[in-house]
Amino acid sequence: VQDEFMRTFDLIRSEFRKYFRMLFGGGDASLELTDPEDPATSGLEITAKLPGKRAQRLEALSGGERSLVSVALLFAMFSARPGPICVLDEVDAALDEANTERFRHILHDFAQRTQFIVITHNPGTIEEADSILGVSMSANGVSELVSVRMNGVDGNGAAAPVEIP
Amino acid sequence: VQDEFMRTFDLIRSEFRKYFRMLFGGGDASLELTDPEDPATSGLEITAKLPGKRAQRLEALSGGERSLVSVALLFAMFSARPGPICVLDEVDAALDEANTERFRHILHDFAQRTQFIVITHNPGTIEEADSILGVSMSANGVSELVSVRMNGVDGNGAAAPVEIP
Amino acid sequence: MYLRELEIHGFKSFARKTKLEFGTGVTAVIGPNGTGKSNVADAIRWAMGEQSMRSLRGSRTEDVIFGGSSGRSRSGMAQVTVTFENSDNWLPIDFDKVGISRRAYRSGENEYRLNGSTVRLKDIQDLLRSGGIALGGSMVIGQGEVDAALSLRPEHRRLLLEEGA
Amino acid sequence: MYLRELEIHGFKSFARKTKLEFGTGVTAVIGPNGTGKSNVADAIRWAMGEQSMRSLRGSRTEDVIFGGSSGRSRSGMAQVTVTFENSDNWLPIDFDKVGISRRAYRSGENEYRLNGSTVRLKDIQDLLRSGGIALGGSMVIGQGEVDAALSLRPEHRRLLLEEGA
Ligand SMILES: Nc1ncnc2c1ncn2[C@@H]1O[C@H](COP(=O)(O)OP(=O)(O)OP(=O)(O)O)[C@@H](O)[C@H]1O
Ligand SMILES: Nc1ncnc2c1ncn2[C@@H]1O[C@H](COP(=O)(O)OP(=O)(O)OP(=O)(O)O)[C@@H](O)[C@H]1O
Ligand SMILES: [Mg+2]
Ligand SMILES: [Mg+2]
C-alpha cells in the first residue's frame, strides 16, 4: 500500500510539473512530501514559480493563477489515475483570454480519453465543446432544457450560442 | 447608540429590499433580527425570494444569485451610510449578461455620489467605466500601467479595450 | 465508458421530468444565472451516492426535492437516473448499459436501484469504486471549489490524492 | 471627496514607482491574470492602515515588499501614497488635498505620514473613521469575497453592519 501510494505520488508529481508548465507557458512547480521521512502520514506541499517571477506562496497568487495551479493538479491526478468522467462547474471563471486558450488545449487532449461535462459562462470553453446543453428556467421556477444553436463564427472567431426555446 | 443602530438598521433593511428588487427584477427579500427582543446583541438573518421562485435558504442559491444578493446588501449599506469611495474586486465574476446589465445600472446611479474603483474582466462593467486603467506585467515580473484605448463599439454594442504598451 | 444519459425528476429545480444526453468528449452546459446548471452537477453526484447534503448546498434530504415555486406546488419525491455506456466493461459488471437510480421521499427515505433492481447504497458505492470513480476525489469540481485543493492543509491535501488512488 | 492618486513603489509586484490617477465616478482596472490588479486594491487598503496581513494575502510585513523576480532583485522597502481630493472637507482636516503615506522595511518596521508629517497609525485610523471610512466595512470587497456576507453567521453579519455604522 505504501509503495502503491509512492508510485502514484511520483507520477502525479511529474505530471503536475508538466501540466503546470503547459498552463503557464514555462516556470516550475513542485509537489513535495512535507515529511519525506514519514511518507505514510506526510502532508503535501505545493510550491509554484511562475515564468519571470520568483517562487511564491500559494496565498499570494492571483485568482487566475490559483485556478491554473489547481487545474494542473487536477489534470495530474487524472493523468495518473484516469477516470472515465469529470464534471467541472465554472473552474474557468477567473481565467483571462490567454489562459482560457491554454486551458482549452489541455481539455482538448484529455477529452480523448475522459468525458468532460463542463458548466461554464466562458466563451472560449464553450467553443471547445463537442456538444452543448442549454439550461433555462421557466417563469414558474422550473428548470428545462433548451436546444442551442451555434451562431456561426463572429469576428473574434468566437461561436455565439443562440437559444432556441 | 441602540437607537442609532436601529435607525441605521431600518434604513438598510428597506434599502436592501429595494436594491434586491431592482437587481432581480422583482421578488422579495428581508433582513431581520434573529432576536427582535434583544436588538443589542441579535444577529441578522437574510431571506430571499426570487421572482417566480419560493423563498430559499441562501446556501441553495446559485453563484450568480448569491453575488446579486450580496451586492444588494452592499448597496443598501452604502445607501444608509454613504462612503466616498468603494473598491470592488471582481464582484461581477459570476454574473451572466442580463444580471451584469442590472448591476451596471445600479453602479451608474451610485457613481453620482460615490467613487468606484472596479477591478473586472466583465465587458459589460468595463463599458460602464468613466475611465479605464490597464495593468500589465513586464517579462521580468514587474507590474506597470498601460494606457487603454476603447476600440469603438462592436456588433454587440460592446466597447473592446485595446492595450497600448 | 461514459455518462450517456441523465434523467432528473423532482430533484431541486427540475420539477418536470427532464432527460439530458451526453456524448464522449466535452459537453458544455450553459445558460443564465439560477437556471439549474449546478443543480445538474448536484444531480449526478446525488445519484452516484453523495451523502454529504452540505456539499449539495442543503442540510437534509428534503432540500433536494423540488420545494414548489410561485406557479407550481412542491413535489413529493425526487428521482435521478444516471445511465452509463459500459461496453468497455470499465465497471466490472456484465452490462453494456448501467443505470444507477436514486429516489428520495420527504420522509427522508432514500432508495437505490441498479438496472432496475433495488440495491443498497453500499452496492452502488462498491461498484463505482471498483471503476475508480470516487466522489470525494477529482471527479467533480463544484462551483467556487476550483482552488479548494490549494487552501487545504498539507495533510488534507494528501488525503485528496489518496482518494483518487 | 475622492481618491485622486495612488503612488506605489516596492509594494508587491510594483517594483518600479507607479502612479495611478483616478477620477470621480467609475474607474475600471483591467488586464490579464496575475498582472497586479488586486495588488492595487491591496495597496489602497495597506496605505489606509490595514493591519491584517492575512487579508492582504500575506503573513508578515515582508510579504508586501517586492520579493524579487527572475529579472530584478528584491526591494528593501515598500511605500504607498494615497492622495484624496478633499475640497468638500469630508475628512475633517483643513486641507484640500490629503496625502496618506505608509512605508515598510524588511525589519518589519512601518511608518505613516499625513501630508508629509510623520504620524501614528492611530492618527490615520482616527482621521479615516471620522470620515466614515472603515476598512472593515463595505469599502473594499476583495476578490472571491463578494458573497462573504452571506456565509457569515448572523452575529458576525450584524458586526458588518455596525462597522459601516
Ligand atoms: N429544492 C429546490 N426546489 C426548488 N428550487 C430549488 C431547489 N433547490 C435549489 N433550487 C433553485 O435552483 C436555483 C439554483 O440553481 P443552480 O445553482 O443550478 O443555478 P446555476 O444555473 O448554476 O446558476 P449560476 O450560473 O448562477 O451558477 C436557485 O434559484 C434555487 O432556488
Ligand atoms: N511581494 C511580492 N513580490 C513580488 N511579486 C509579488 C509579491 N506579492 C505578490 N506578487 C505577485 O503578484 C501577482 C498577483 O497579482 P494580483 O493578485 O494583483 O493579480 P491580478 O491582476 O489581480 O490577477 P487576476 O486577474 O488573476 O485576479 C502574483 O503573481 C504574485 O506572485
Ligand atoms: Mg452554478
Ligand atoms: Mg485579482
Secondary structure: elements and pairs:
The complex is a heterotetramer, with 2 copies of chain A (165 residues) and 2 copies of chain C (165 residues).
Chain A: H1 2-24, E1 28-33, E2 44-49, E3 55-56, H2 63-80, E4 85-89, H3 97-110, E5 115-119, H4 123-127, E6 131-137, E7 143-153, E8 159-164
Chain C: E1 2-9, E2 18-21, E3 26-30, H1 37-47, E4 77-85, E5 97-105, E6 110-114, E7 117-119, H2 121-130, E8 140-141, H3 148-151, H4 154-164
Give an overview in words.
The complex is a heterotetramer, with two copies of chain A (165 residues) and two copies of chain C (165 residues). Chain A is of the alpha+beta class. Chain A is 36% helix and 29% strand. Chain A contains four helices and eight strands. Chain A has helices spanning 2-24, 63-80, 97-110, 123-127; strands at 28-33, 44-49, 55-56, 85-89, 115-119, 131-137, 143-153, 159-164. In chain A, the strands form three sheets. A three-stranded antiparallel sheet of chain A has the order 1-2-3, with helices on one face. In chain A, strands 6-7-8 form a three-stranded antiparallel sheet. In chain A, strand 4, helix 3 and strand 5 (115-119) form a beta-alpha-beta unit. The longest helix of chain A has 23 residues, at 2-24. The termini of chain A are far apart. In chain C, strand 6 (110-114) and strand 7 (117-119) form a beta hairpin. Chain C has four helices and eight strands; from the N terminus they run βββαββββαβαα. Chain C starts with a strand and ends with a helix. Chain C has a six-stranded antiparallel sheet. Chain C has helices at residues 37-47, 121-130, 148-151, 154-164, and strands at residues 2-9, 18-21, 26-30, 77-85, 97-105, 110-114, 117-119, 140-141. Chain C is of the alpha+beta class and 165 residues long. The model of chain C has no long low-confidence stretch (mean pLDDT 94). Chain C is globular and about 45 Å long. At the A-C interface, helix 1, strand 2, helix 2, strand 4 and strand 5 of A face strand 2, strand 3, helix 1, strand 8 and helix 3 of C. The complex binds adenosine-5'-triphosphate (ATP) (2 copies) and magnesium ion (2 copies). One magnesium ion is lined by residues 37-38, 143 of chain D.
